[in-house]
């Protein structure tokens, strides 16, 4: 059991307490805490491991520590696992856990926390309990786009032009605004089941022209207006061709009908109500008169388990493109401004030649986010789920148990592509037999080492409804 007096060691500014070093030969965790410098997250991180390896637990540990350091997080949660971050109980009283578990399971949870010096009665001279600190200093919001189960998101407001007061104008930021338009159009067409190349597809070119023409004069746009403008475009020519030569009116009507079918679907109404998708608001401290005078650090969880695959792609592409636009307006920094955690990234940044709408903005954030203080943390089951252009730009790796030799080889090749020098033979076999919650860690500094992830302060049992 860790001595509670170790708190001055694990509660260090700028360092994340993720667990303890692990001795493979002895098969046990050591006393030395495993601390990750928070600045390493500006070079992004990835967590690999088969089902049951403990990726979700490690991810929540990292989120807890980042939030305790006062850094806001935006969480993309396709499977709905990370909503457990909202389950923390400082008193650890059985009544708080009902109807999640019985008393025996609650006792097991308390004992697990106690083994890590968490949740104990410290006395007045031993500092504030970390779980209570989380409750006092962190605000966890669960957003459910397309549903009223959590906080609704008015996603279609994201079709409007950015507020020029944020510093993004056509005079100075035309390339960034066109990039945003291209990502919106790709997401809309994908949701409607229409494949159209951004450079050659008539559908993509027409919609992009409509958006740019409307945005340049500062006018808002919604699906209803977009459908009408497809039939009666605001421009008479595309390139050197008259509109009716480039895209005949009868064929434009088919495109308008495809988007109208989206609008007519009963479930689509839920996309048009709720809070706007506004990145600055998600990152500002919540000043609600709570225990923290500076305001509570925000954890914004976008839970997407209820959506179809196409709807998830649509939402994720728009959210990531909003982040890219926000990034473009920031001054350079070496400090972590926010962490974006993407759980189960499989299918959203696949290798070439697949190119879903989410891929381009995600790769942009990985390649350029560091300069704006955006850290990306990605979780998936094997390295083949991610385009190599993304993997090669990631500086911190956590690798749990991988079942197949191909997955293990791919993970180690990824480490090598990131510039890590090590003996592959020393690590390849152990990766096939790692116990749950044990990971091989490699950050941008230092050498690979094994560690056991600590017990999460958030309650990872039961299911939030």
Explain the overall architecture.
This protein has 465 residues and is of the alpha/beta class. It folds into 2 domains: 4-89 and 134-152 and 274-453, Rossmann fold; 155-272, no CATH class. The protein contains 16 helices and 15 strands. It has helices at 7-10, 55-68, 94-97, 103-114, 130-137, 170-191, 202-216, 223-231, 243-246, 249-264, 279-283, 309-328, 359-368, 388-391, 405-417, 424-428; strands spanning 15-23, 28-37, 45-48, 73-77, 138-143, 153-154, 237-238, 241-242, 275-276, 297-303, 338-342, 374-380, 396-399, 438-442, 449-453. Strands 2-1-15-14-13-3-12-11-4-10-5 form an 11-stranded mixed β-sheet. It has a two-stranded parallel sheet with strand order 6-9. β14 (438-442) and β15 form a beta hairpin. The protein is globular.
Quickly give the structural class: alpha/beta
The number of E-state strands comes to 15
- Taking the alpha carbons of the first and last residues, their distance comes to 34 Å
**Helix content class:** 25-40%
Unreliable stretches: 1-6, 122-127
The CATH topology of the largest domain turns out to be Rossmann fold
User: Do you know the CATH architecture of the largest domain?
Assistant: 3-Layer(aba) Sandwich
Count, helices:
16
Count of distinct structural domains: 2
CATH superfamily (homologous) name of the largest domain: P-loop containing nucleotide triphosphate hydrolases
What's the overall geometry? globular
Can you summarize the main beta sheet?
11 strands, mixed
Mean pLDDT: 87
Radius of gyration: 24 Å
Strand content: 15-25%
The CATH class assignment of the largest domain is Alpha Beta
Neighbour order of strands in the largest sheet: 2-1-15-14-13-3-12-11-4-10-5
């Amino acid at each position: 059991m860790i001595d509670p007096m170790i708190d001055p060691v694990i509660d260090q500014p700028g360092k994340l307490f993720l667990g303890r070093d692990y001795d493979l030969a002895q098969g046990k965790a050591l006393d030395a805490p495993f601390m990750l410098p928070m600045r390493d997250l500006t070079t992004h991180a990835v967590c690999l491991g088969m089902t049951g390896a403990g990726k979700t637990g490690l991810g929540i540990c990292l989120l807890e520590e980042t939030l305790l350091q006062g850094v806001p997080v935006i969480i993309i949660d396709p499977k709905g696992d990370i909503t457990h971050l909202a389950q923390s109980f400082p008193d650890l009283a059985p009544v708080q856990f009902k109807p999640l578990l019985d008393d025996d399971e609650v006792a097991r949870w308390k004992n697990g926390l106690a083994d890590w010096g968490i949740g104990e009665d410290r006395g007045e001279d031993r500092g504030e309990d970390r779980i209570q600190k989380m409750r006092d200093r962190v605000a966890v919001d669960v957003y459910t786009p397309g549903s009223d189960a959590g906080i609704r998101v008015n996603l279609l407001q994201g079709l409007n032009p950015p507020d020029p007061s944020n510093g993004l104008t056509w005079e100075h930021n035309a390339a960034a605004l066109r990039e945003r338009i291209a990502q919106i159009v790709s997401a809309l067409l994908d949701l409607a089941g229409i494949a159209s190349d951004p450079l050659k597809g008539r559908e993509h070119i027409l919609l992009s022209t409509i958006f740019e023409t409307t945005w340049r004069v500062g006018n808002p746009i919604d699906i209803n207006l977009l459908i009408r403008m497809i039939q009666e475009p605001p421009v008479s020519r595309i390139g050197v061709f008259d509109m009716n030569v480039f895209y005949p009116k009868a064929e434009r009507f088919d495109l308008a009908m495809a988007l109208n079918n989206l609008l007519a679907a009963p479930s689509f109404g839920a996309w048009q109500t709720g809070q706007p998708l506004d990145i600055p608001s998600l990152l500002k401290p919540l000043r609600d008169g709570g225990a923290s005078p500076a305001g509570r650090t925000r954890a914004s969880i976008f839970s997407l388990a209820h959506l179809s695959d196409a709807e998830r792609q649509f939402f994720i592409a728009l959210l990531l493109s909003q982040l890219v636009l926000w990034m473009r307006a920031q001054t350079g920094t070496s400090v972590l401004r926010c962490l974006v955690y993407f759980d189960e990234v499989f299918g959203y940044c696949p290798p070439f030649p697949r190119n879903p709408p989410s891929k381009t903005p995600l790769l942009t954030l990985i390649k350029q986010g560091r300069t704006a203080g955006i850290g990306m943390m990605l979780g998936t089951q094997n390295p083949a789920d991610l385009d190599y252009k993304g993997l090669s730009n990631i500086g911190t790796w956590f690798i749990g148990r991988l079942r197949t030799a191909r997955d293990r080889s791919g993970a180690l090749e990824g480490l090598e592509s990131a510039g890590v020098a090590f003996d592959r033979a020393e690590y390849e076999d152990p990766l096939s037999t790692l116990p749950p919650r044990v990971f091989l860690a490699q950050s941008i500094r230092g050498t690979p080492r094994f560690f056991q992830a600590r017990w999460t302060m958030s309650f990872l049992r039961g299911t939030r409804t």
